[in-house]
Amino acid sequence: MAQDSESASDTEDSDLELQDAFSKGFLKPGLNVVEEAKKRYVNNVVGLEQCLEEFKKNIEWIERLDMTNGPAADIIALTEGKSVSQERSDIDPDDDFQREMYFYRQAQATVLDALPQLNQQKIPTKRPDDYFAEMAKSDHQMHKIREKILSKQISMEKSEKAKQLRALRKYGKKVHTEVIQQRQKEKKAMMTAVKKYQKGLTDKLDFLEGDKVSSKTKKEGGKGPAAGIKQNKQGVNAKRKYKNEKFGFGGKKRGLKWNTKDSHDDVSSFRSKVAHSKSNSFGKGRKKNANKRPGKRTRQKKKNQAR
Amino acid sequence: MFSSLCPDPQGRWKNKERVLIFSSRGISYRARHLMQDLRTLMPHSKPDTKMDRKDKLFVINEICEMKNCNKCLYFEAKKKQDLYMWITNVPHGPSAKFLIQNIHTLDELKLTGNCLKGSRPLLSFDPTFDKEAHHRLLKELFIQVFSTPHYHPKSQPFVDHIFTFTIADNRIWFRNYQIIEEDGSLVEIGPRFVLNLIKIFQGSFGGPTLYENPNYQSPNMVRDTSQRVTVSKSVPRAKR
Hints:
Chain A is 58% helix and 1% strand. Chain A is mainly alpha-helical and 307 residues long.
């Protein structure tokens, strides 16, 4: 006869008794497991009611000040357009905000119902300003609370300011880099166009116009800078020429002869006008009194003649 | 609003309720502060020294008799972790035992409201309290314990705060709000706690069990099951 491993049952039921039970049909073949009786929770409703009746105090409402009511209307849900009818099962104890709002609204509903009744019974609900009495929380505690709230506000404002500043700086930097890049691009384009013109690849001076739209401004823009550039070129040319001679291609070599046959035959620096002029105010004959003022007699003569 | 500012000085204190609030030894700081907060909020309460947990609970009935109290709030701390609360009607019962969780005391800086010390509270109950028999019993018990009697010598005449009891998730949630405006704007004062009903007895600290909460799991069981879960997670790793 198969039995489970409960040692208690082995000691309680002897083999003979088990055989008896089997023959009577109480036990079936196979593994018999002792079933644990399901735990029954006491709910003595009658007893509870009786107890309640016994110890209930029938005192006036004004002594008890109790109210039983559901929560007040949820204003937030109304404004958002959600379903107004709140069922009890809706409270999710893990959703802190919803749960606390439910308690708050329940308290609100009680206040709205009870205050008129209190006013009827002439029980004051508002503390007058000159009524000073001990509070549940000391002044020191309230001061601490106020400070905490203030510090929170300040820190929030600071972080907001810092965020804004950061964002502004970022934006500013972006704009700055863009502007610089734009300027560099323009400069590069202008320089390449100018060089092209210098090298003679293009005749047009279109690059000077830039992004100006009207024809008038185009013309004006075309003339002024063009003339300036031409002059510049010439000026640059002469100076450039001299400098190129002196320094270009490694400059003049030192230790070169200079009174050679070629230099002797070179008469390019001969100025006939200067050479054949008889004025003393040039070259060696130059005297301090080159622009001499005529004498008194000569001046008077001239004066008389002019009259 | 109302005609006279002065409260009625001729009112006589008729509803003689006195609640003995005390605890056992081995109580944590949070629970001790909660107890002190309740003593502050209830002017009809009386304090007492800590009781040794080795004494039997029915000794409390004698203590209450000596102090002339007819209600008792006894906080029992076990393992320096779990806090149980007995709320009883002393001479003949009934009594209820709760497990207290999620304690927030008056000192928390996030609870910004304040009220007069000893002012009478409004009590607000969930409609669910009227449905089941055991909830109705608890409601009556709460009303008798927490409502400050009218014209109590230590009470203030103004009604400026409200206690709410709500049933959610098979537990009773307690909140205390300050009434700021007549239109119902409230600020939380504290304290806050959650009561998990264990049993209701017919007598005071004893007697036949009238109700047992099927949803209640003792903190030891909770710790045990969570430990088992972590152990079962780690075993396969060991076998590798």
